[in-house]
Amino acid sequence: MADHHHDEGFHQHAHEHAGAPPHKHPHHHVTDPAAVAHHHAHTTSFEALTYTVSPLHSLDARAKIVAALVLVLGVVGTPPLRLAEFALFCTLLLAASTIGRLPLPRLLARSLAVLPVAATIALLAPLQSSGGSWNATGFAAAWSGEGWVVAWSILSKAWLSACCMLLLAATTRTADLLAGLRRLKVPGVFVMLLAFIARYVGVLADQLHSLRTAVASRAPHLRGRELTRALGSIAGNLFVRSYERGERIYAAMLSRGYDGALPVTGATRVGTAEVLLVTTAMLTAAAIALY
Fold it and tell me: Fewest CB atoms less than 10 Å from the CB: which of 19, 145, 206, 259?
Protein backbone atom coordinates (compact mmCIF):
# COMPACT_ATOMS: atom_id res chain seq x y z
CA MET A 1 0.00 0.00 0.00
CA ALA A 2 2.99 2.27 -0.38
CA ASP A 3 2.20 3.46 -3.88
CA HIS A 4 3.15 7.14 -3.86
CA HIS A 5 3.30 9.78 -6.57
CA HIS A 6 4.50 13.27 -5.70
CA ASP A 7 3.89 16.33 -7.88
CA GLU A 8 4.07 19.86 -6.48
CA GLY A 9 2.78 18.79 -3.07
CA PHE A 10 0.09 16.51 -4.48
CA HIS A 11 0.52 12.75 -4.22
CA GLN A 12 -1.55 9.61 -4.02
CA HIS A 13 -1.33 6.37 -2.12
CA ALA A 14 -3.51 3.32 -2.07
CA HIS A 15 -5.94 2.83 0.80
CA GLU A 16 -9.13 0.88 1.28
CA HIS A 17 -12.31 0.76 3.31
CA ALA A 18 -14.37 -2.13 4.54
CA GLY A 19 -16.28 -3.71 1.69
CA ALA A 20 -14.50 -1.72 -1.03
CA PRO A 21 -11.45 -2.51 -3.19
CA PRO A 22 -8.21 -0.54 -2.73
CA HIS A 23 -8.26 2.86 -4.39
CA LYS A 24 -6.21 6.04 -4.55
CA HIS A 25 -6.72 9.64 -5.56
CA PRO A 26 -4.60 12.81 -5.60
CA HIS A 27 -4.42 14.82 -2.39
CA HIS A 28 -1.89 16.67 -0.30
CA HIS A 29 -1.01 16.66 3.38
CA VAL A 30 -0.90 19.82 5.48
CA THR A 31 2.68 20.52 6.59
CA ASP A 32 1.65 22.64 9.58
CA PRO A 33 1.51 20.35 12.65
CA ALA A 34 -1.20 22.55 14.19
CA ALA A 35 -3.45 22.25 11.15
CA VAL A 36 -6.21 19.72 10.78
CA ALA A 37 -5.19 16.51 9.03
CA HIS A 38 -6.40 16.01 5.50
CA HIS A 39 -9.39 13.88 4.62
CA HIS A 40 -10.50 12.16 1.44
CA ALA A 41 -13.74 12.96 -0.36
CA HIS A 42 -15.20 9.78 -1.81
CA THR A 43 -17.68 10.43 -4.56
CA THR A 44 -20.46 7.99 -5.31
CA SER A 45 -20.55 8.78 -9.02
CA PHE A 46 -19.39 6.48 -11.79
CA GLU A 47 -16.09 8.36 -11.93
CA ALA A 48 -15.21 6.96 -8.50
CA LEU A 49 -14.46 3.63 -10.19
CA THR A 50 -11.49 5.22 -11.97
CA TYR A 51 -9.65 5.58 -8.64
CA THR A 52 -9.62 1.83 -7.97
CA VAL A 53 -6.19 0.23 -7.73
CA SER A 54 -5.86 -2.58 -10.27
CA PRO A 55 -3.50 -3.72 -13.05
CA LEU A 56 -5.96 -2.44 -15.65
CA HIS A 57 -6.19 1.02 -14.08
CA SER A 58 -2.41 1.40 -14.06
CA LEU A 59 -2.04 0.87 -17.82
CA ASP A 60 -1.27 3.78 -20.11
CA ALA A 61 -4.42 5.50 -21.36
CA ARG A 62 -3.27 5.36 -24.98
CA ALA A 63 -3.14 1.57 -24.94
CA LYS A 64 -6.62 1.33 -23.42
CA ILE A 65 -8.06 3.78 -25.96
CA VAL A 66 -6.53 1.89 -28.90
CA ALA A 67 -7.64 -1.48 -27.51
CA ALA A 68 -11.21 -0.28 -26.98
CA LEU A 69 -11.41 1.18 -30.49
CA VAL A 70 -10.01 -2.01 -32.03
CA LEU A 71 -12.59 -4.12 -30.21
CA VAL A 72 -15.45 -1.83 -31.21
CA LEU A 73 -14.34 -1.82 -34.85
CA GLY A 74 -13.97 -5.59 -34.73
CA VAL A 75 -17.56 -5.91 -33.53
CA VAL A 76 -19.33 -3.38 -35.74
CA GLY A 77 -17.31 -4.11 -38.89
CA THR A 78 -18.14 -7.83 -39.09
CA PRO A 79 -21.24 -9.85 -40.01
CA PRO A 80 -23.78 -10.68 -37.29
CA LEU A 81 -22.10 -12.36 -34.33
CA ARG A 82 -22.62 -16.04 -33.79
CA LEU A 83 -23.28 -17.34 -30.30
CA ALA A 84 -19.69 -18.61 -29.98
CA GLU A 85 -18.31 -15.20 -30.96
CA PHE A 86 -20.68 -13.42 -28.61
CA ALA A 87 -19.67 -15.75 -25.76
CA LEU A 88 -15.97 -15.18 -26.51
CA PHE A 89 -16.40 -11.42 -26.40
CA CYS A 90 -18.45 -11.56 -23.18
CA THR A 91 -15.79 -13.74 -21.57
CA LEU A 92 -13.09 -11.24 -22.51
CA LEU A 93 -15.10 -8.33 -21.07
CA LEU A 94 -15.84 -10.31 -17.90
CA ALA A 95 -12.14 -11.07 -17.46
CA ALA A 96 -11.27 -7.40 -17.95
CA SER A 97 -13.83 -6.26 -15.37
CA THR A 98 -12.53 -8.86 -12.92
CA ILE A 99 -8.92 -7.77 -13.39
CA GLY A 100 -10.04 -4.16 -12.99
CA ARG A 101 -11.91 -4.95 -9.75
CA LEU A 102 -15.03 -3.34 -11.15
CA PRO A 103 -18.55 -4.01 -9.82
CA LEU A 104 -20.13 -6.11 -12.56
CA PRO A 105 -23.79 -5.35 -11.64
CA ARG A 106 -23.12 -1.62 -11.86
CA LEU A 107 -21.46 -1.96 -15.26
CA LEU A 108 -24.30 -4.10 -16.57
CA ALA A 109 -26.87 -1.60 -15.36
CA ARG A 110 -25.03 1.20 -17.16
CA SER A 111 -24.65 -0.81 -20.35
CA LEU A 112 -28.39 -1.48 -20.55
CA ALA A 113 -28.99 2.23 -21.16
CA VAL A 114 -28.08 1.75 -24.83
CA LEU A 115 -30.65 -0.99 -25.40
CA PRO A 116 -33.80 1.20 -25.73
CA VAL A 117 -32.25 3.15 -28.61
CA ALA A 118 -30.80 0.02 -30.19
CA ALA A 119 -34.09 -1.84 -29.76
CA THR A 120 -35.99 0.89 -31.59
CA ILE A 121 -33.57 0.67 -34.51
CA ALA A 122 -33.65 -3.14 -34.41
CA LEU A 123 -37.43 -3.12 -34.53
CA LEU A 124 -37.52 -1.09 -37.75
CA ALA A 125 -34.34 -2.31 -39.46
CA PRO A 126 -35.86 -5.56 -40.82
CA LEU A 127 -38.34 -3.47 -42.81
CA GLN A 128 -35.51 -1.79 -44.70
CA SER A 129 -33.66 -5.04 -45.35
CA SER A 130 -36.76 -6.80 -46.69
CA GLY A 131 -38.45 -3.83 -48.36
CA GLY A 132 -41.59 -4.33 -46.25
CA SER A 133 -44.36 -1.81 -45.75
CA TRP A 134 -45.42 0.01 -42.57
CA ASN A 135 -48.28 -2.28 -41.58
CA ALA A 136 -48.88 -5.52 -39.73
CA THR A 137 -48.39 -7.62 -42.85
CA GLY A 138 -45.12 -5.87 -43.68
CA PHE A 139 -43.78 -6.37 -40.16
CA ALA A 140 -44.74 -10.04 -40.19
CA ALA A 141 -43.06 -10.58 -43.54
CA ALA A 142 -39.90 -8.74 -42.47
CA TRP A 143 -39.57 -10.66 -39.21
CA SER A 144 -40.38 -14.05 -40.67
CA GLY A 145 -37.18 -14.16 -42.72
CA GLU A 146 -33.86 -12.55 -41.84
CA GLY A 147 -35.44 -10.01 -39.51
CA TRP A 148 -34.32 -11.78 -36.35
CA VAL A 149 -30.73 -11.90 -37.59
CA VAL A 150 -30.72 -8.18 -38.36
CA ALA A 151 -32.25 -7.31 -34.98
CA TRP A 152 -29.80 -9.57 -33.14
CA SER A 153 -26.89 -7.99 -34.99
CA ILE A 154 -27.92 -4.46 -34.00
CA LEU A 155 -28.65 -5.28 -30.36
CA SER A 156 -25.55 -7.40 -29.74
CA LYS A 157 -23.16 -5.00 -31.43
CA ALA A 158 -24.60 -1.95 -29.68
CA TRP A 159 -24.43 -3.61 -26.26
CA LEU A 160 -20.90 -4.98 -26.71
CA SER A 161 -19.65 -1.62 -27.99
CA ALA A 162 -21.21 0.12 -24.98
CA CYS A 163 -19.52 -2.38 -22.65
CA CYS A 164 -16.13 -1.67 -24.25
CA MET A 165 -16.54 2.08 -23.80
CA LEU A 166 -17.76 1.62 -20.22
CA LEU A 167 -14.69 -0.44 -19.36
CA LEU A 168 -12.51 2.30 -20.82
CA ALA A 169 -14.35 5.02 -18.87
CA ALA A 170 -14.34 3.01 -15.63
CA THR A 171 -10.60 2.28 -15.69
CA THR A 172 -9.25 5.61 -16.97
CA ARG A 173 -9.51 8.94 -15.20
CA THR A 174 -10.89 11.81 -17.21
CA ALA A 175 -7.62 13.74 -17.17
CA ASP A 176 -5.65 10.68 -18.27
CA LEU A 177 -8.18 9.90 -20.98
CA LEU A 178 -7.96 13.42 -22.41
CA ALA A 179 -4.17 13.36 -22.20
CA GLY A 180 -4.14 10.02 -24.01
CA LEU A 181 -6.30 11.42 -26.80
CA ARG A 182 -3.97 14.39 -27.12
CA ARG A 183 -0.91 12.14 -27.31
CA LEU A 184 -2.65 10.06 -29.98
CA LYS A 185 -2.75 13.25 -32.10
CA VAL A 186 -6.50 13.81 -31.81
CA PRO A 187 -7.24 17.44 -32.85
CA GLY A 188 -6.74 19.78 -29.91
CA VAL A 189 -10.09 21.54 -30.38
CA PHE A 190 -11.92 18.23 -30.10
CA VAL A 191 -10.01 17.29 -26.94
CA MET A 192 -10.67 20.71 -25.43
CA LEU A 193 -14.41 20.40 -26.09
CA LEU A 194 -14.46 16.97 -24.49
CA ALA A 195 -12.58 18.36 -21.49
CA PHE A 196 -15.11 21.13 -20.92
CA ILE A 197 -18.04 18.76 -21.39
CA ALA A 198 -16.59 16.31 -18.89
CA ARG A 199 -15.85 19.03 -16.36
CA TYR A 200 -19.06 21.04 -16.52
CA VAL A 201 -21.82 18.63 -17.46
CA GLY A 202 -22.21 17.89 -13.75
CA VAL A 203 -22.39 21.60 -12.98
CA LEU A 204 -25.14 22.10 -15.55
CA ALA A 205 -27.03 19.07 -14.24
CA ASP A 206 -26.93 20.50 -10.72
CA GLN A 207 -28.12 23.87 -12.04
CA LEU A 208 -31.01 22.21 -13.86
CA HIS A 209 -31.94 20.26 -10.74
CA SER A 210 -31.97 23.41 -8.64
CA LEU A 211 -34.19 25.20 -11.18
CA ARG A 212 -36.58 22.25 -11.30
CA THR A 213 -36.69 22.15 -7.49
CA ALA A 214 -37.46 25.87 -7.38
CA VAL A 215 -40.40 25.40 -9.74
CA ALA A 216 -41.70 22.40 -7.78
CA SER A 217 -41.48 24.28 -4.48
CA ARG A 218 -43.21 27.42 -5.78
CA ALA A 219 -45.83 25.77 -7.99
CA PRO A 220 -46.25 22.13 -6.94
CA HIS A 221 -49.63 21.79 -8.65
CA LEU A 222 -48.47 22.56 -12.20
CA ARG A 223 -49.61 19.92 -14.67
CA GLY A 224 -49.94 19.43 -18.40
CA ARG A 225 -49.53 22.49 -20.58
CA GLU A 226 -48.62 24.79 -17.68
CA LEU A 227 -45.85 22.44 -16.59
CA THR A 228 -44.56 22.27 -20.18
CA ARG A 229 -44.51 26.06 -20.37
CA ALA A 230 -42.60 26.19 -17.07
CA LEU A 231 -40.07 23.64 -18.31
CA GLY A 232 -39.57 25.77 -21.42
CA SER A 233 -38.79 28.77 -19.22
CA ILE A 234 -36.37 26.60 -17.23
CA ALA A 235 -34.58 25.59 -20.44
CA GLY A 236 -34.22 29.21 -21.51
CA ASN A 237 -33.01 30.25 -18.06
CA LEU A 238 -30.51 27.41 -18.05
CA PHE A 239 -29.18 28.47 -21.46
CA VAL A 240 -28.67 32.06 -20.33
CA ARG A 241 -26.99 30.99 -17.09
CA SER A 242 -24.76 28.55 -18.95
CA TYR A 243 -23.69 31.24 -21.40
CA GLU A 244 -22.88 33.68 -18.60
CA ARG A 245 -21.06 31.01 -16.59
CA GLY A 246 -19.03 30.06 -19.65
CA GLU A 247 -17.90 33.64 -20.14
CA ARG A 248 -16.88 33.94 -16.48
CA ILE A 249 -14.99 30.65 -16.58
CA TYR A 250 -13.17 31.57 -19.77
CA ALA A 251 -12.17 34.97 -18.35
CA ALA A 252 -10.91 33.29 -15.19
CA MET A 253 -8.89 30.77 -17.21
CA LEU A 254 -7.30 33.53 -19.30
CA SER A 255 -6.32 35.40 -16.16
CA ARG A 256 -4.58 32.25 -14.92
CA GLY A 257 -2.51 31.75 -18.06
CA TYR A 258 -4.72 29.51 -20.19
CA ASP A 259 -3.19 29.19 -23.69
CA GLY A 260 -5.60 26.74 -25.33
CA ALA A 261 -4.26 23.53 -23.80
CA LEU A 262 -5.06 22.11 -20.39
CA PRO A 263 -2.05 21.12 -18.27
CA VAL A 264 -1.22 17.43 -17.91
CA THR A 265 0.53 15.88 -14.92
CA GLY A 266 2.08 12.47 -14.61
CA ALA A 267 4.49 10.56 -16.81
CA THR A 268 3.36 8.11 -19.48
CA ARG A 269 4.89 4.85 -20.57
CA VAL A 270 4.17 2.05 -23.00
CA GLY A 271 5.55 -1.22 -21.71
CA THR A 272 4.97 -4.94 -22.05
CA ALA A 273 1.54 -4.83 -20.39
CA GLU A 274 0.29 -2.15 -22.79
CA VAL A 275 1.57 -4.08 -25.82
CA LEU A 276 -0.08 -7.25 -24.51
CA LEU A 277 -3.41 -5.43 -24.06
CA VAL A 278 -3.43 -4.04 -27.61
CA THR A 279 -2.30 -7.40 -29.02
CA THR A 280 -5.11 -9.21 -27.21
CA ALA A 281 -7.66 -6.75 -28.58
CA MET A 282 -6.32 -7.13 -32.11
CA LEU A 283 -6.34 -10.94 -31.92
CA THR A 284 -9.89 -10.91 -30.57
CA ALA A 285 -11.08 -8.63 -33.36
CA ALA A 286 -9.28 -10.77 -35.95
CA ALA A 287 -10.81 -13.96 -34.53
CA ILE A 288 -14.30 -12.47 -34.78
CA ALA A 289 -13.69 -11.25 -38.33
CA LEU A 290 -12.17 -14.51 -39.59
CA TYR A 291 -14.27 -17.06 -37.73
Answer: 19
